[in-house]
Amino acid sequence: MTRKQSTRFIPIIAVLLALLILVVGCTKPEPASNDKTAPAQKPKEITVSWMRDLGPSNPHAYYPNQLFSQSMLYEPLVSYNEGGELKPYLAESWNISTDGKEYTFKLRKNIKFSDGSSFNAAIVKRNFDAIMKNKSTHSWLGIAKVLEKTEIVDEHTIKLTLSEPYYPALQDLATVRPFRFLGEAGFPEGDDTLKDLKAPIGTGPWMITEYKQDQYTVFTRNPNYWGEQPTVDKVTVKIIPDSETRVLAFEKGELDMLFGEGAISLDAYKQLQGTGKYGTALSDPVGTRNILLNSSNEMLADQRVRLALQHGINKQSIVDGILGGVEQKADSLLSNNYPYVDLKVNPIDYSTAKATAYLDEAGWKLAPGQTIREKDGKKLELELVYDKTDPIQKVLGEAVQAAWGEIGVKLNIAGMELTAATKLLREGKFDVRFWFNSGVPYDPHTLINAVKEPSFGVAEAHSRIPMKQELDKKIQTVLASTNEVERKKLYTEILTTLHEQSVIVPISYIKQTVVYNKSLSNVTFPASRWDHPFNGIK
After folding, report:
1. Same domain, 210 and 328
2. Domains contained in the chain, number
3. 419-459: per-residue pLDDT in tens?
4. How far apart are CA 456 and CA 425, in angstroms?
5. Are 386 and 421 in contact (CB under 8 A)?
6. Which of 47, 53, 267, 385 is 20 to 30 A from 278, alpha carbon to alpha carbon?
């Protein structure tokens, strides 16, 4: 190339260099990184609290295991959905024999436990056999009482044989415990899972990755989950026994959500709602807040005394005051949004005149200048036990104490740890206590089964009512009935008798509350009362 030719290219090169500088100057600099890839999105985490330790998270055991955490780890064959619809879950389909005694389930294939082991008919049978080792403990759930045999048909088919027809079998299998499934590596020696487990291994969307007793539990997504993964990557549950401390922690931003019955007082719920700073929601009725009067106590064996005590409670005042108008006054044991429940009974309303008349008629007299009624030299004095971690129960107990004092009944109240209180209930060693029915999908069949089956406190509380044997026969008949018309008729008769006997005193229809940081969305209530709310949160 001649000098003249090379000189001609200089302006062109200058232009190209200028363009290159311009392009580079307009380009965003890459972040300092060795691999030049975009940074990973920050994991979505939420922190919540609970009033007590979650326990070992054993799918086949009760307290201290907590229902919501069990539902995060373990799954049922059948799921309960809005409107009471039962849908396939770990079982993709099922068939019921014409006599109602055999249930054959086709299991989904390619399902893994959180440790990567397979879910199949063999592990289903092992779980059912482990549960039935403790049949009497689980017989509050009717299927445990009638389940006779579990058979493996093939690798993904299991057959359950019942000793008699039991119409709510599928509803019972949809409950949170005990009929959910533990992975093989979680079984203790001897397979007595009621007493112990090696590790909480389930098929659910969550797994426990960190646990410090009485402080916190950390749940992370199960990488082997067969279904749709939750949007949230991690849920930390802090244990905060005191409800006021929970509220303060939430207000300081240490918690993202307050959920669960009894987690906070209903006054606190309304106060947080009133700030407008948080998301809040209130469920439809999920159960009934009751007082249980133990008729095995000689004083409470008389129906007139039980009716007097119910007439002595101003339920509407409790709803408007203690419950902040959030719940609804209960006029019967169950609200009419349960299957087979359409009760038309006369409410046992507040009336000190009726209460006084019943007590006088029963022989409990109030002497001049005295404040406690007596009969045959014995004072009408009772004790109410409550769960001391529940912020509502203590205040409610004090209200009942004051109300009964006005009609000459002395009520002592005692707060206990839930374990101790539950033990007394199961043994029938109590006068008066708070009691809540289970809600859907358990009721109404589980409520009436509890009235019939001893060892859970409710049957013991009804032991002295005069028609107990006849009532038990009706309960047996309705649970085995395959006739819808007969079922509805029998349920009406049974629930009406329970209402009239006033062993279970309904106070209000419970509603669940949730308060959450507005950075969260799609916060909803599960269809089943005791399931967890975390899967859909974004």
Report:
1. no
2. 2
3. 898 889 988 999 999 999 988 888 999 999 999 988 789 99
4. 7
5. yes
6. 53
Alpha carbon of residue 478 to chain centroid:
25
Coil, strand or helix at 170: helix
For range 85-107, the mean pLDDT: 97
In the three-class reduction of DSSP (H, G, I as helix; E, B as strand; rest coil), residue 186 is classed as: helix
At 21, the pLDDT band (50, 70, 90 cuts) reads very low
Going by pLDDT thresholds of 50, 70 and 90, the confidence category of residue 43 is low
Boundaries of domain holding 182: 47-256
In angstroms, the Cα distances linking 415 to 54, 65, 181 are: 20, 21, 35
Question: Same domain, yes or no, for 430 and 506?
Answer: yes
Residue 9 pLDDT? 38
User: How many CB atoms lie under 10 A from the CB of residue 346?
Assistant: 9
Task: Say whether both 53 and 107 belong to one domain.
Answer: yes
Co-location of 207 and 304 in the same domain:
no
Residues 252 and 361 both lie in one domain = no
Question: CA angle, corner 527, sides to 183 and 210, nearest 5?
Answer: 40
Would you state the pLDDT for residue 261? 85
Task: Say how many C-beta atoms besides its own lie within 10 A of residue 311's C-beta.
Answer: 23
> How much is the average pLDDT of 41-60?
90
Instruction: Give per-residue pLDDT as tens, 250-307.
Output: 999 999 999 988 889 889 999 999 999 999 999 988 999 999 999 999 999 999 999 9
Region for residue 433 given its phi and psi (left: phi exceeds 0; alpha: psi -120 to 50; beta: otherwise): beta
One-character DSSP codes across 288-330: EEEEEE-TTSGGGGSHHHHHHHHHT--HHHHHHTTTTTTSEE-
Q: How far apart are CA 491 and CA 478, in angstroms?
A: 7
Q: Residues 337, 476: one domain?
A: yes
Provide the total of helices (H) and of strands (E) in the chain, helices listed first.
17, 19
Same domain, 337 and 233: no
Domain CATH code at residue 496: 3.10.105.10
